[in-house]
Amino acid sequence: MTTGNDEEKGKVLRGRAAAVGLNKNQVVAAAIAQIGEKGLAAFSLRELARKLGVSPAVIYWHVGGAKEDLYAEISASITGTLSEGLDADMPWDDRLRQVFLKYRELVHRHPAVAPLLGAQMKSNGVANLDWVETILSALHDGGYRGDALRPAFNALVGGLAGFVTMELAPPPVSKPDSEGETWQDLFAKRVAQTDPELYPLTAAALPEISNRIFVLRWQSGAEIPYNDSFELLLDLLVEGLKARAPAPPS
Amino acid sequence: MTTGNDEEKGKVLRGRAAAVGLNKNQVVAAAIAQIGEKGLAAFSLRELARKLGVSPAVIYWHVGGAKEDLYAEISASITGTLSEGLDADMPWDDRLRQVFLKYRELVHRHPAVAPLLGAQMKSNGVANLDWVETILSALHDGGYRGDALRPAFNALVGGLAGFVTMELAPPPVSKPDSEGETWQDLFAKRVAQTDPELYPLTAAALPEISNRIFVLRWQSGAEIPYNDSFELLLDLLVEGLKARAPAPPS
DNA sequence: ACCTGAACACCGTTCAAGT
DNA sequence: ACCTGAACACCGTTCAAGT
């Protein structure tokens, strides 16, 4: 994990270094910005370097060894503030709600980065120990101890963080086809033409569900957020865990 | 969506074409195999072409326009069998369980492809209309109609499919660092050294949670599956939806 | 209809060399 | 300590041309 960048301690910058004067935080911030503009799929280290007015090798010097390490830094920088400003003086079930509502809010602030958090395993775990402890502590207060802690934790995190990952799954890079129609156009048409004979319930529910449920949509949660669906999920989980607590709450 | 390949209708293959004789299904199958071996991050169209003993351009001819279209074909080919062999003569809640247990089983058969299903929006929706109808129909029978259908559907699919996406999030491409240690080694050590002063609950629960909960693991669900956590989640959702059905079940 | 071969504009990553 | 510049081995995608 040697990145060469050991925090600012009033270093004297000399020569060319002084003129450029980049640090890891700036590289990470610029990367997040670029991903936000062009999307994760189109993100490139060389383009990032160009934007920073710097040689590609500089990225490698500031961040660890590879593109994947930059991704890990990005994840860490976003989840780093996850446990800040939480109110610990609430009933355990409300604390759980608070934690995951905040998680969703944070990720929604950087929707393009969501796949990194949800679909990649490397996201510097140390930064998240506070978060884990917070959740375990709420569960503990709710009566979950020993063996019961693990499945409860996983059901919550997997279900809720997983929801956000799917909600913010990026749409395809939209280039119009030969007839000038985008994938969005085509998909919207297909959904509208759902055969009522074959799929009676789907067809009947179209006004309510078209572009607003997971499989039948052509815009991501960054454009059409799933607030109430997430809150229902959160409610089902927290209330359910409350109802079947293996030990009396403390 | 012109792919040039309009299903086999007893075509007479001539010249070089006869010798190679590739079709879309074979390309997709080979791609799935290759992703399974080397991982999604390392997947390349050129390598796929080499493996098939064919020029790179051939992939473009059989599949639509770009790499993303191949991904969509892969997703479709995997989710295509999702609604096969389902037992429709069960209570609605058991039907829901069946659907999502099958979803997880299917994706676990191709863990490396999981990010496509969970973290990319383009996965040819038409193939999944059966699946959507199945879920809507179960919910309908459970008393969910009109407005209530959408959030219930989204909570289920987002929570459960999202869980599987996170469960199977791929680990980093493991190359040992300068001291010959992999990311897995380093991460395992860090977790083991969790400070009991700062994180008392986490430290105390380590034997139960180390490498077995979402944030504190270094192996994916492909190696260490989260069966009971998924079943807990499924149970909380289905039981919860049952308890708060807006209309009497039919 | 299906495939080749070459070409174009890009990548990620490494490394010796500069200040 | 921080950065440049060039080099290497790869990509995805397109297109004219072959059979």
Automatic annotation (TrEMBL), chains A, B:
GO terms for molecular function: DNA-binding transcription factor activity; transcription cis-regulatory region binding. Keywords: DNA-binding, Transcription, Transcription regulation. The keyword S-adenosyl-L-methionine does not apply. PROSITE patterns: HTH_TETR_2. Residues 44-63 bind DNA. The keyword Transmembrane does not apply. Residues 21-81 form the HTH tetR-type domain. This is Putative transcriptional regulator, TetR family protein. It comes from Sagittula stellata (strain ATCC 700073 / DSM 11524 / E-37). The lineage of its organism: Bacteria, Pseudomonadati, Pseudomonadota, Alphaproteobacteria, Rhodobacterales.
